[in-house]
C-alpha cells in the first residue's frame, strides 16, 4: 500500500470500479502505439446504436511533465497538462477544451504522509470551486469535499467519507448528495494477485426511502482470462468477460439485462484494445 490516505476521490473507488468498470453498452475499438521518446498515440472508434464516433489521443511525458491531447470526429479538442512537484509533494493539472473553452479548469493536489488536499477552479468568468481534504494513513482515512458556485453563491455539493484499507480488503462509507444519500461498501480480495475479489455495496436515499443493494465479484479463470459479475435487488444482472489475446491486447465482452423484465432486449457491449 502507498503511504498517506490518498485523495478523497479514492474513498470507495476500488469497490466502485469492480461494480462499474468495463460494463459496456456500446462497441469500441482502439489501437495504441508507443515510442521510445515517451510519446503514446491512441486511436479509438465507438459505435453506440446507429451512431459512430471516434477520437485520436496523444500523450507525451518528459520528467515531471506530461501532456495529453485528444481530438474527436466533431472537431472538439481537449488538452490536459500535468506538472509534478512544482511545489514539493504536489501535482498541478490544467485542462482546456475547445471550442467550449469555458469548461476548462485548474487543479492543484498536495500530498502529505497524513493528509491530502485538492482544489479545482473553473477557467471562466464565474468559476466553480471544488475543495477536498483527506486525513489519515494508508490504512485509515477520512475526508470531505465541497463544491461552491460563485455565480449563485451556493454550495453545489458537500460529501464526507471514511475508509479502512487492509492488504486483502477495503471498506468505506460515503455520505453524499448534501446528506441525502449514504453508501457503504466492502471489497475482499480472494488471491494475492488481487484479480479475484468479492464486493458488496448498499446505498440508502433518505428522501425516497429507496435502498439499493449490489453484490459482485471478479474471478481469474487463468492468467489471460477474467470474468466479472454483478447483481442488485432491482433485478439488474451484468457480466463481463475479458481475455488477453496477445500481450497487452484485450477483448472485452459485456452484457446486462433486467431479470424482472425478461421481455426487454439485453444490452451488449464489445471492446477491443490493441497495444504493442
UniProtKB/TrEMBL annotation:
Organism: Abeliophyllum distichum
Function: Forms a channel through the cell membrane that allows diffusion of small hydrophilic molecules. The channel adopts an open conformation at low or zero membrane potential and a closed conformation at potentials above 30-40 mV. The open state has a weak anion selectivity whereas the closed state is cation-selective.
Pfam family, one: Porin_3
A Gene Ontology molecular function term of the record: porin activity
Entry keyword set: Ion transport, Membrane, Porin, Transmembrane, Transmembrane beta strand, Transport
Gene3D superfamilies per the UniProt record, alphabetical: Porin
A biological-process GO annotation: monoatomic ion transport
PANTHER family according to UniProt: MITOCHONDRIAL OUTER MEMBRANE PROTEIN PORIN 5-RELATED, VOLTAGE-DEPENDENT ANION-SELECTIVE CHANNEL
Keyword Protein biosynthesis: no
Protein location: Membrane
Protein name: Voltage-dependent anion-selective channel protein
UniProt similarity note: Belongs to the eukaryotic mitochondrial porin (TC 1.B.8.1) family.
Domain of life from the UniProt record: Eukaryota
CC terms in the record's Gene Ontology section: mitochondrion; pore complex
